[in-house]
Amino acid sequence: MSTTLLHVGRAFTPLTELHDAGILIRDGVIETIGPRNSMSLPAGANEVSAAGRIAAPGFLDVHIHGAGGHDVMEGTPDVLQAVSKTIAVHGTTSYVATTVTASPENICIASEGIARYIATQHQATDTRAEILGIHFEGPFISPVRRGVHPLEWLKLPSAELLAKFVAAAGGHARIITIAPELLGAIPCIDAAQKSGMVVGIGHTDATFEQALAAFHQGAHHAIHMYNAMRPFSHRDAGVIGAVLTTPGVTAELIADGVHVEETAMRLLLQAKGAGGVILISDGISATGMPDGTYMLGSFEVTVSGGVCRNAEGKLAGSTLTLDRALRNIVGLGAPLSDALRMLTLNPATLLGIESKKGSLRAGADADIVLLDDALNVTQVWTRGCTN
After folding, report:
1. Number of domains, the chain
2. Residue 110, helix vs strand vs coil
3. Are 210 and 246 in contact (CB under 8 A)?
4. What pLDDT, on the 0 to 100 scale, is given for residue 233?
5. Distance (Å, rounded) from C-alpha 185 to C-alpha 181?
6. How does DSSP assign 261-304, residue by residue?
7. Which stretches in the chain have pLDDT values below 70?
8. Spatial contact of 368 and 380, defined as CB atoms under 8 Å apart
9. Which of 167, 225, 283, 352 is most buried, taking the most CB atoms under 10 A from its CB?
10. Please, are residues 143 and 101 in contact by the beta-carbon 8 Å criterion?
11. Catalytic machinery residues
């Protein structure tokens, strides 16, 4: 792989902003980042001049079901490649493939397919997002707050069933969504942690006390904050109140202006701070596609005006891309460095891979996004590859 020196006007690491910066990429890894005038061009290296651009770490999506007309539960190499290429165009350079509630057999089959793809994806020499693992959203969720997840396949949390999912994932099980009020939730949280998974609470009707019990047990993440959760009120703070007031608990946010209205987004940003929010897409197969009918797992979703709903009219994921989420959050008044952190360092830290992903730093993968002043993506590197 060639050596490239990227010269940009501004670079966000994301915690530090560098002006007139140079980023030296060698063999798919960032070797050096610093002032361009302090760096010399290595022999045989290619210099890319982008003095009018902003460089940021590649975006990391921990909750996405599909894109480009395909759902990750199809689990085939062609499908997963199509998803990965579609979202890379919008700056997402790595993601956690997210399943939806289905029969245990189908969840296992999909997981096995994703695991096989993960084993071979690094052979690619084109620009495509990297799958970092699997997020199991369901079946251990509340029937009261199931959203569009099929009722017939919901299960009480079970360490035994979770073990089957983990085995099918072949070492790539990364996140599990659990409704903590359900019978069996606490043993399942314990089992998930022993398997090295992040435990998120979501699709839940939990009370404030039940949510706190889950946090005490080791859950420390909230799935698509506000959506599919017991509502907050001044006499019943519920799971939302617990998330907003518990330090160390990160909260996902679908910042498309449809799933969460502006004031609620501002409240979350103020309560959790720049380090406590993770922007996600919750994107489905319709992402990057025109309006029409698409699949989410095994059921149909209709997309009109870019908004996804099932036959009952319930929201069913989104068509949001993370570059648009970035622009929306900055549009609320968030500093660019904070908004970028929510797309890069925060999700990488959640997964425990912040030394390799989510930062522009020596030794990290060369996952880099170039943005213009309007925060539109102009070029993307995925592990040193660019088109």
Report:
1. 2
2. helix
3. no
4. 96
5. 7
6. -HHHHHHHHHHH-TTSEEEE--B-TTTTS-SEEEEETTEEEEEE
7. 1
8. yes
9. 283
10. no
11. 282
CB atoms under 10 Å from CB of 311, counted, come to 11
CATH number of the domain encompassing residue 20: 2.30.40.10
Contact 252, 62 (CB under 8 A): yes
Q: Name the percent of the chain in helix, strand, coil, to the closest 5.
A: 30, 30, 40
Structural domain contains residue 234: yes
Q: What is the pLDDT of residue 265?
A: 98
DSSP-assigned states of every residue in 190-213? HHHHHTTPEEEE-SB---HHHHHH
Residue recorded with tokens 């005490």? 216
CA–CA distance, 325 with 79 (Å, rounded to integer): 24
Q: State whether 249 and 145 are in the same domain.
A: yes
Largest CA distance in the chain: 67
Residues 29 and 147 in one domain: no
pLDDT recorded at residue 292: 97
pLDDT, tens only, 167-184: 999 999 999 999 999 999
Predicted local distance difference test score (pLDDT) of residue 2 = 84
Whether the predicted model's global pTM rises above the 0.90 cut: yes
Report the CATH number that the domain containing residue 99 is assigned in CATH: 3.20.20.140
Q: Residue 363: inside a domain, yes or no? A: no
Distance of CA 103 to the CA centre of its chain: 24
Domain range holding 376?
Answer: 3-55+372-381
Helix (H) or strand (E) holding 380: strand 377-381
User: Helix or strand or coil: residue 92?
Assistant: strand
